[in-house]
């Protein structure tokens, strides 16, 4: 201990200094000005019996019972039985999993209908826009949320700004529960994310206007200059110096201090490698590379640095930087010991993430990457929860976690299965057998198809 | 790399064309909507199916191929694609799907542009898609030009049928292309048909809507010898298209997309107009798809509409391989209360015999009925299941390679890291 060698007065002096420093470091601004007002809906103690269970962290239970009450998972018991005061749901022939978490969605920011008036995902007025917050664009009445729930079993999702910009802005993680405003959907306690983008999009959007960046080297130069500014801004804040309030720098300072997680759209292996070094250069960490179609080329590097890859099963070829996508990307990343996530980036794909995982799993097995079904479920719930900084709260069925649970009407890695019931914080938010448990967004009310099975 | 070459060779199914071949022991899917047949037999001679079913006598001297444990099906016929037209969507010089700056539209013929070398052809072949209905996209007019039917064989002869249909945009996109409204769209359509009629009589107007080649190319559409594929989504727009058929009874219409078809399914059925539907649209993605539901196909089928699965505006230049997953999802609906799905047999038919029949090639492709071309796929499981994979593919009885640049990349990077030489030396 250094302190032991100090004299008492020296110690006192240091304490004062520390206090002064702490005071200076106290945020000059409110870090949570649009706080979550989400409250779990009422739930009843529930026991789902006779089910096959994937707990989300790689364990499987057969013929088990899942108990939850007061919005929390109580436990999974092999066999198990009804308990007094519990609503019992017979899950014979069915599966229980943690709710799927989509780490990459634009629901709300690019809602349905996809008309120009709803195009709120890219603040494409400058390549560096860390000051914008996706939550300020989320339309909580996007009909897409209900499809992700009813067909996809999605219980939480990250809404990201688009990829037109190098720094796209802050993301927001939400519960998949309709509310009157975004605050009512915000996942309590979830950290913010920062969306960044490599490659073709930023250089195309700005290069075509004769602006920087016009090249990949331009991308990196603008990135580095911005991070250098952020480091300087943070240094001033840490020293207690007066700074002008700068919303962009506040977001980047949040990244540098580890409070905000970086979600970096980056297809190519070479560009991911450069970003890894850039993060080290400026002292931050990348949580997840998104659309990482070439992660298989550098899966060892990603494993070493503990960076997740958010991937599709088989999207490819729509642009040059997606040309080297392969169907075995997800299992090969998993095999290398890196964090693999199945993501959607799509209002339709988010309804079938379980099927995307199934395709990747099968393609992996065909080349000898033998991942069990229950372990593959980590790609859908636990790993995305980790990437979002909410794995202590959801993403698996460990006792005490949020009861974000899907009962599937069959093997959830089969194309023939759909959610039977979905609970979020223990509240039944979807029930295939009950049309009243089928959310209808404001936009759909009074229009053809209202309340139909979708 | 001898062992690798051998491995590649092993992926190519031996030809079925040389002699009579009997495929035995597999679970045989005919593709006509019937249920799969356990331990069925398929007999092939000279690149054509001679017989397929449960109790088929095996001709003496036939070469036998054991398919025990496999599913044996006709190759998938992708109902609406832009396969073969696009190398990389966003790389314009590699993209022949549309011609925004061309003075021509109706007369554009997509067939010569179908490029068997684009990566998507091999990728879809390896996934079990053996034929595809290929449509041009529209550029600056409501007509896009002539579509074709292609095969995905590894050769320079991809066109099964050129000028198989004319493609047209109706609804929101058609209205935009016609100048901004549906009345403008109807006016453009009627004027175009009037000019086609004049052209058929050798009469050309002084200030025509269509160039001469376009007016002439529309003549077979007007007289019904060429099908007109019409992309249309909303129920009112579908009714408007059906009304056109009343004005021009010779038109041979096919609806494409038809997301709200379920709302007017009896009218579509009564008009005997088939549909190449988008299978899984369930979002009010636009104001012409407000009532979208995955039950659309099932409800239309139940009302007596002939429905195949197409993929308009859904990565159709590359992802025809999703047809099987889409069909499987329609089977899944049978377990969802209130939803209407398809039986397994009908779902498979919707990606094989039905699109073949809709495009006028039901006697040639899309099923294992006698006389059909021997487009045959072996699968390691239920072809509609997401976890199943393709093991062998024959097109016209010719064994096909299943290697793609994707599988080559995969093999190169199975063990990422720095080896004795750079990865570029791994062939």
Walk me through the structure.
The complex is a heterodimer of chains A (454) and B (427). By secondary structure, chain A is an alpha/beta fold. Chain A has a domain at 99-395: TIM Barrel (Alpha-Beta Barrel). Chain A is 26% helix and 20% strand. Chain A is built from 11 helices and 16 strands. Chain A has helices spanning 8-25, 144-150, 200-207, 216-238, 247-256, 269-282, 299-305, 329-335, 353-366, 373-376, 382-388, and strands at 46-54, 60-69, 72-78, 87-90, 95-98, 100-105, 154-159, 167-175, 193-197, 261-265, 286-290, 308-311, 340-342, 405-408, 419-424, 427-431. In chain A, strands 1, 2, 3, 4, 5, 14, 15 and 16 form an 8-stranded mixed β-sheet that branches. In chain A, a hairpin with a 5-residue loop joins strand 1 (46-54) and strand 2 (60-69). The longest helix of chain A is centred in the middle third of the chain and has 23 residues, at 216-238. Chain A is globular, with a radius of gyration of 23 Å. Chain B is an alpha/beta fold and 427 residues long. Chain B has 2 domains: 2-73 and 383-412, Urease, subunit C, domain 1, CATH 2.30.40.10; 76-365, TIM Barrel (Alpha-Beta Barrel), CATH 3.20.20.140. Chain B contains 13 helices and 16 strands. Chain B has helices spanning 2-10, 119-126, 171-177, 182-200, 212-217, 219-222, 235-247, 265-270, 296-302, 323-332, 344-349, 353-358, 405-412; strands at residues 21-28, 37-45, 48-53, 63-66, 71-74, 76-81, 129-134, 143-151, 159-169, 227-232, 252-257, 275-278, 307-310, 376-379, 390-395, 398-399. In chain B, strands 1, 2, 3, 4, 5, 14, 15 and 16 form an 8-stranded mixed β-sheet that branches. An 8-stranded mixed β-sheet of chain B has the order 6-7-8-9-10-11-12-13. In chain B, helix 2 links the parallel strand 6 (76-81) and strand 7 (129-134). In chain B, helix 3 (171-177) crosses helix 4 (182-200). The chains are: A alpha/beta (454), B alpha/beta (427). At the A-B interface, helix 7 and helix 9 of A face helix 2, helix 10 and helix 13 of B.
């Amino acid at each position: 201990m250094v302190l032991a060698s100090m004299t008492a007065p020296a110690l006192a002096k240091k304490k004062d200094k520390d206090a002064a420093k702490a005071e200076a470091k106290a945020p000059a601004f409110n870090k949570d000005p649009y706080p979550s007002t989400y409250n779990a809906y009422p739930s009843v103690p529930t026991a789902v019996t006779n089910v096959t269970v994937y707990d989300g962290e790689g364990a499987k239970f057969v013929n088990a019972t899942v108990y939850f009450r007061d919005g929390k998972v109580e436990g999974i018991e092999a066999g198990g039985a009804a308990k007094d005061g519990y609503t019992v749901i017979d899950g014979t022939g069915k599966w229980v999993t943690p709710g799927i978490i989509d780490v990459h969605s634009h629901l709300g920011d690019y809602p349905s209908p996809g008309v120009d008036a709803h195009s709120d995902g890219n603040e494409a007025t400058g390549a560096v826009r860390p000051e914008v917050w996706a939550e300020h664009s989320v339309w909580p009445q996007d009909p897409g949320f209900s499809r992700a729930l009813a067909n996809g079993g999605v219980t939480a999702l990250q809404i990201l700004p688009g990829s037109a910009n190098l720094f796209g802005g802050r993301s927001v993680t939400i519960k998949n529960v309709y509310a009157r405003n975004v605050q009512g959907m915000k996942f309590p306690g979830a950290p913010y994310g920062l969306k960044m983008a490599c490659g073709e999009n930023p250089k195309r959007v700005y290069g075509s206007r004769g602006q920087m960046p016009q090249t990949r080297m331009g991308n990196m130069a603008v990135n580095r200059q911005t991070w250098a500014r952020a480091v300087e801004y943070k240094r001033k804040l840490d020293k207690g110096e007066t700074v002008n309030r700068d919303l962009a720098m506040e977001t980047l300072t949040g990244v540098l201090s580890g409070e905000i997680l970086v979600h970096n759209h980056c297809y190519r292996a070479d560009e991911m490698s450069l970003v890894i070094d850039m993060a080290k250069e400026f002292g931050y960490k990348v949580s997840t590379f998104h659309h990482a179609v070439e992660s298989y080329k550098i899966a060892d590097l990603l494993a070493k640095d503990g960076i997740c890859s958010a991937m599709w099963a088989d999207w490819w070829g729509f642009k040059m930087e997606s040309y080297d996508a392969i169907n075995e990307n997800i299992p090969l990343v998993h095999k290398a010991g890196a964090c693999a996530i199945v993501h959607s980036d799509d209002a339709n794909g988010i309804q079938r993430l379980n099927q995307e995982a199934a395709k990747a799993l099968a393609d992996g097995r065909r080349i000898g990457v033998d991942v069990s079904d229950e372990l593959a479920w980590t790609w859908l719930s636990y790993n995305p929860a980790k990437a979002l900084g909410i794995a202590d709260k959801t993403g698996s069925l460990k006792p005490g976690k949020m009861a974000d649970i899907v009962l599937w009407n069959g093997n959830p890695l089969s194309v023939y299965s759909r959610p039977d019931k979905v609970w979020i914080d223990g509240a039944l938010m979807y029930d295939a057998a009950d049309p009243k448990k089928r959310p209808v967004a404001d936009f759909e009310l009074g229009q053809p198809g209202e309340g139909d099975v979708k | 790399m001898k062992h690798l070459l051998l491995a590649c060779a092993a992926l190519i199914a031996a030809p079925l064309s040389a002699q009579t071949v009997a495929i035995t022991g597999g679970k045989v899917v005919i593709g006509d909507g019937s249920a799969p047949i356990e331990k069925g037999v398929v007999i092939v001679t000279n690149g054509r199916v001679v017989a397929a079913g449960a109790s088929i006598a095996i001709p003496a001297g036939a070469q036998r191929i054991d398919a025990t444990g496999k599913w044996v099906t006709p190759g998938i016929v992708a109902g609406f694609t832009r396969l073969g037209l696009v190398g990389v969507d966003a790389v314009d010089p590699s993209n022949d799907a549309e011609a925004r700056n061309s003075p021509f539209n109706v007369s554009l013929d997509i067939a010569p542009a179908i490029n068997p070398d684009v990566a998507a052809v091999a990728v879809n072949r390896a996934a079990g898609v053996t034929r595809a209905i290929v449509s041009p996209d529209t550029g600056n007019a409501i007509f896009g030009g002539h579509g074709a039917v292609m095969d995905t064989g590894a050769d320079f002869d991809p066109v099964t049928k050129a000028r198989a249909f004319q493609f047209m945009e109706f609804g929101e996109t058609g209205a935009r292309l016609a100048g901004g409204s549906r009345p403008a769209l109807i006016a453009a359509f009627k004027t175009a048909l009037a000019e086609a009629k004049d052209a058929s009589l050798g009469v050309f107007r002084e200030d025509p809507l269509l160039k001469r080649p376009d007016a002439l190319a529309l003549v077979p559409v007007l007289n019904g010898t060429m099908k007109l594929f019409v992309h249309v989504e909303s129920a009112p727009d579908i009714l408007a298209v059906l009304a056109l058929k009343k004005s021009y009874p010779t038109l041979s219409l096919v609806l494409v997309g038809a997301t709200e078809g379920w709302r007017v399914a009896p009218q579509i059925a009564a008009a005997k107009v088939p549909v190449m539907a988008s299978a899984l649209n369930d979002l009010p993605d636009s104001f012409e798809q407000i009532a979208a539901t995955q039950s659309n196909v099932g409800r239309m089928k139940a009302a007596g509409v002939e429905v195949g699965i197409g993929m308009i505006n859904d990565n159709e230049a590359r992802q025809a391989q999703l047809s099987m997953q889409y069909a499987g999802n329609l089977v899944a609906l049978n377990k969802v209360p209130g939803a209407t799905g398809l039986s397994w047999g009908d779902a498979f038919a919707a990606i094989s015999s039905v699109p073949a029949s809709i495009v006028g090639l039901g006697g040639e492709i899309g099923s294992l009925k006698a006389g059909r071309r021997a487009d045959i796929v072996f699968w390691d499981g239920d072809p509609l299941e997401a976890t199943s994979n393709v093991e062998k593919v024959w097109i016209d009885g010719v064994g096909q390679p299943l290697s793609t640049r994707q599988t080559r990349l995969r093999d190169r990077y199975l063990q990422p890291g720095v080896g004795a030489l750079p990865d570029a030396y791994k062939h």
